[in-house]
């Protein structure tokens, strides 16, 4: 078991322009209110809260597709988060990016990828999500940009505005594992298949169990001496236990499946950065989703569910 103390940095990313429903901008403060920092400190880690970021100033831009919503905001947030994440990735800290809708991962992950490349280590990404977020700016029908970050990160074309130049350190598609997915559009499926991204849907999780699906991926990260970024979307979880998300899809991960993933990630000692995304406190029930996400972070940082007294939710 890995019990190393970590220097954790919290970065608020109150992004909600990428989602179809507003409210994710309250996410970072909901995590703070739910006691994220104190919980991590109680586990023996040190925590520095860097507050909330603001989007970078962006000059005039024309959206490449008229259906896209809040395109300039996506560009501004991506640039601000990319710079912040590249800096944190170069330091010996563990950043937790507090979202914010999933559009923020375009910046957090690309910045971490840049830092990983500077350290000559491959970056692997575990994407825990009901959706694959693999639309291009052309293929999206909804225009909601939180459906596009993973396509950007894997180097699909059309995203050069995001950083003002082509993405230099793209993720290798085979270094990306999407777990828990249960809603993929046809265009996304074709692109995912063509590129060789790892995708385990809920049916596979039902049939094979979540641990045997995660384990080989972790072994590949270890064998490659890779860094591992985890991007945890609230809608990975079943809406019965995590209602505070604008994109609920029935049939998500259970409480135990989600904790097991986090415990395995902790035991692996491989995770170096984390996104907590899509929490919409406006849709929550007395903070239960925020508290569950904080609890899951606790498992990722070394807490055991069975060490705690039982309590009712
Ligand atoms: Mn997502």
Provide an overview of this structure.
Helix content is 35%, strand content 16%. By secondary structure, it is of the alpha/beta class. The protein has one domain (7-306): Ureohydrolase domain (Arginase, Chain A). Strands 2-1-3-8-7-4-5-6 form an eight-stranded parallel beta sheet, sandwiched between helices. The mean pLDDT is 95. Residues 102, 129, 131, 133, 233, 278 line the site of manganese (II) ion. Pathway: Nitrogen metabolism; urea cycle; L-ornithine and urea from L-arginine: step 1/1. One of its GO terms (biological process) is arginine metabolic process. Keywords: Arginine metabolism, Hydrolase, Manganese, Metal-binding. It comes from Roseibium marinum.
Assembly level: single chain
Helix percent band: 25-40%
Instruction: Please mark out the parts with pLDDT under 50 across 5 or more consecutive residues, or reply none.
Output: none
At the first level of CATH, the class is: Alpha Beta
Average pLDDT rating: 95
Q: What is the global morphology?
A: globular
Radius of gyration: 18 Å
The DSSP helix count reads 10
The first-to-last residue Cα distance is 29 Å
CATH superfamily: Ureohydrolase domain
Which structural category do the helix and sheet elements fall into?
Answer: alpha/beta
Order of helices and strands: EHHEHEHEHEHEHHEHEH
Question: Can you list the ligands bound to this structure?
Answer: manganese (II) ion
Taking the sheet with the most strands, its summary is: 8 strands, parallel
Beta-strand content estimate: 15-25%
């Amino acid at each position: 078991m890995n019990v190393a103390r970590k220097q954790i940095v919290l970065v608020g990313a109150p992004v909600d322009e990428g989602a179809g429903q507003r409210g994710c901008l309250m996410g970072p403060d909901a995590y703070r209110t739910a006691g994220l920092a104190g919980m991590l400190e109680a586990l023996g880690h040190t925590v520095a809260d860097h507050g909330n970021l603001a989007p970078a100033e962006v000059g005039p831009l024309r959206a490449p597709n008229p259906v896209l919503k809040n395109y300039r905001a996506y560009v501004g947030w991506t640039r601000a988060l990319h710079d912040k994440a590249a800096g944190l990735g170069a330091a010996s800290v563990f950043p937790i990016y507090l979202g914010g809708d999933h559009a923020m991962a375009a910046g957090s992950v690309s910045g971490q990828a840049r830092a990983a490349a500077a350290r000559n280590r491959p970056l692997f990404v575990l994407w825990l999500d009901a959706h694959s977020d693999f639309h291009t700016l052309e293929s999206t029908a909804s225009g909601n940009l939180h459906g596009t970050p993973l396509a950007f990160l894997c180097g699909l074309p059309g995203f050069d505005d995001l950083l003002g130049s082509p993405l230099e350190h793209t993720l290798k598609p085979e270094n990306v594992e999407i777990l828990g997915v249960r809603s993929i559009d046809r265009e996304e499926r074709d692109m995912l298949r063509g590129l060789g991204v790892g995708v385990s849907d809920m049916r596979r999780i039902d049939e094979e169990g979540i641990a045997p699906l995660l384990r080989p991926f972790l072994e590949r990260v270890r064998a490659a001496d890779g860094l591992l970024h985890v991007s945890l979307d609230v809608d990975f979880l079943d809406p019965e236990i995590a209602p505070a998300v604008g994109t609920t899809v029935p049939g998500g991960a259970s409480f135990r499946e989600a904790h097991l993933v986090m415990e395995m990630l902790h035991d692996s000692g491989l995770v170096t950065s984390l996104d907590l995304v899509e929490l919409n406190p406006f849709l929550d029930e007395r903070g239960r989703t925020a508290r569950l996400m904080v609890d899951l972070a606790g498992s990722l940082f070394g807490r055991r569910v069975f060490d705690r007294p039982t309590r009712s939710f």
